[in-house]
Amino acid sequence: MHEETVSAILKKEAIEYIISLPCDRTKDLCSVLLKEFSYITISREEDGIGILSGLSLTGTRGVLQMQSSGLGNSLNALMTLPFLYGLPLPILASWRGYYQEKIPAQIPFNEKIPDLLQVYHIPCTIIRKPEELHLITSVISDAWIESRPHVALISPQVWEGGEEKPSISPPAVRDRTVSLFYQGVFRQPVMQRADAIGILASMMTDELVVANIGVPSKELYHARDSPAHFYMLGSYTQASPLGLGIALGTGRTVVVLDGDGSLLGTAALPVIASTSPDNLIIICLDNGVYGSTGNQCSPAFDTVDLELLARASGFRNTCKVHTPDELKDEYK
Questions:
Q1: Please, which of 20, 245, 271, 290 could form a disulfide with 51 given CB 3.0 to 4.6 Å?
Q2: Which residues are within 8 A (CB) of 326 and not within 5 positions of it... i.e. 6 or more apart?
Q3: 178 pLDDT exceeds 90?
């Protein structure tokens, strides 16, 4: 089975985590990898860029496994996280729109992917036949030696001719009861975002901190700079996914200073809740606006309750604070 060949290669390359958004052409590969590795299913490919970048920062090896169209969805995150910061990030992408593609929507973007990656100087290795699967080794090796992204484009032709295998079956029982009593109370703020960041910075000891893009990173730097801080320069929505990856790769406490705009733009909250590392703290600095772009109102201003959204995503330990004393008490 070619899927077992891939699994064996990944084990030989000391891969621990598979970050995956499944593709129909690789459903059997997903089934094999799910059993053999720590397997995290995501809902947006760019969140996988963030999670895997966090793992790479800790020296933990993983691969992002997805459909090639996801490269378009995650191109900005790819360029502003692993490419910009020099982080190893091997990607196994099922190449759609290339070989006997029956879905017209897959063709316009996917057929041009090698040219697109060349424009952005992202290494790309094309694997067209089963006997070329060994090239995955060089993809992973290059990513780690050169500290950069490297994409393996795997043609659907690779999986032809193998024995028919059953796809993943969901658990037989899905019954569950969700019981929630919640009353979210919003009070007039008495802190600015910089005030809250300053309070948190004064209480931090040896935590690893991820600061959201734009002004929050500048405010944390001003309040307390540290080699343990990761200042996001780009990659909108990727602070919390990056924090998740770091938390999975280390035993140290990881704190993410995120914002309401970024958290509303990501699909990472259910992924974080299902993974549930006990060393990860996400602090949403909810000022109801996009604070780095001119204070335009976000949906959190008068519609969305981020705490309720976190609970609906599966978070069990949440709180809402408004004053310096409340923030200090909850952070202790």
A1: 245
A2: none
A3: no
Is residue 222 located within the same domain as residue 118? no
**123 and 223 together in one domain:** no
pLDDT, mean over the chain: 94
Could you give the C-alpha distances from 63 to 9, 81, 144, 294, in angstroms and in order? 12, 15, 11, 37
Give the residue-averaged pLDDT of 130-153.
Answer: 98
Strands (E), 108-252: 124-127, 149-154, 208-211, 229-231
Mean pLDDT score, 266-274: 96
Two tokens, residue 47: 């969140």
Which of these, 240, 219, 206, lies nearest to 291 by C-alpha position? Answer: 219
CATH number at residue 131: 3.40.50.970
% residues pLDDT > 90 (the chain):
86
Are 228 and 209 spatial neighbours (Cβ–Cβ below 8 Å)? yes
Helix (DSSP H) and strand (DSSP E) numbers for the chain: 16, 12
As a three-state string, the secondary structure of 295-308 is CEECCCCCCCCHHH
What is the model's pLDDT at position 194?
95
Token pair in block for residue 113: 């992917």
Q: Could you list the residue range(s) of the whole structural domain that residue 307 is in?
A: 193-331
Q: Which residue is listed with tokens 């080699």?
A: 227
Q: In degrees, to the nearest 5, what angle opens at C-alpha 207 toward C-alphas 307 and 45?
A: 55
Q: Which residues contact 225 (CB under 8 A, 6 or more apart)?
A: none
Whether the per-residue pLDDT at 210 is higher than 90: the answer is yes
**Would residue 168 count as lying in a domain?**
no
Whether 210 and 148 map to the same domain: the answer is no
- Whether residue 166 is predicted with pLDDT greater than 60 in this model: the reply is no
Would you call 212 helix, strand, or coil by DSSP?
Answer: coil
The identity of residue 270, as a single letter, is: P
Distance CA 225, CA 61 (A): 28
